[in-house]
Amino acid sequence: MAALFLEIDVVDPSDFSETLTLPRGVEVDGYRILRAEAAAPNAIAAILLGRGDTAPVTRETIRRNEPDPDRRPGIHVGG
């Protein structure tokens, strides 16, 4: 299974506009990365899941689609 990373450059965390630069794909040292610029970290949820706060929406989406906890992927959201 190949990993795909999402990198958000928070350009102005005090500006909570709905503007989001569409992600662009790059490859760095063999790793595939989607890069985007956004005003808020919730852009992660918007890009990957379409709505909501990143952590709870990600957890719930994965839980619903993979009932076996041992098979669920590890997710790391850092700032």
What does this structure look like?
It is flat and about 40 Å long. It is of the alpha+beta class. The model has no long low-confidence stretch (mean pLDDT 76). It has helices at residues 43-48, 54-65; strands at 4-10, 24-28, 31-38. A three-stranded mixed β-sheet has the order 1-3-2, with no helix packed on it.
Radius of gyration over all CA atoms, rounded: 14 Å
Structural class: alpha+beta
Task: Name the overall outline.
Answer: flat
Kindly state the number of beta strands.
3
Order of helices and strands: EEEHH
What is the end-to-end distance?
25 Å
Mind sketching the topology for me?
Elements: E1 4-10, E2 24-28, E3 31-38, H1 43-48, H2 54-65
Parallel strand pairs: 1-3
Antiparallel strand pairs: 2-3
State the gist of this model.
This protein is α+β, with helices and mostly antiparallel strands and 79 residues long.
Can you tag this structure with a few keywords?
23% helix, single chain, 3-stranded mixed β-sheet, 79 residues, alpha+beta, 2 helices
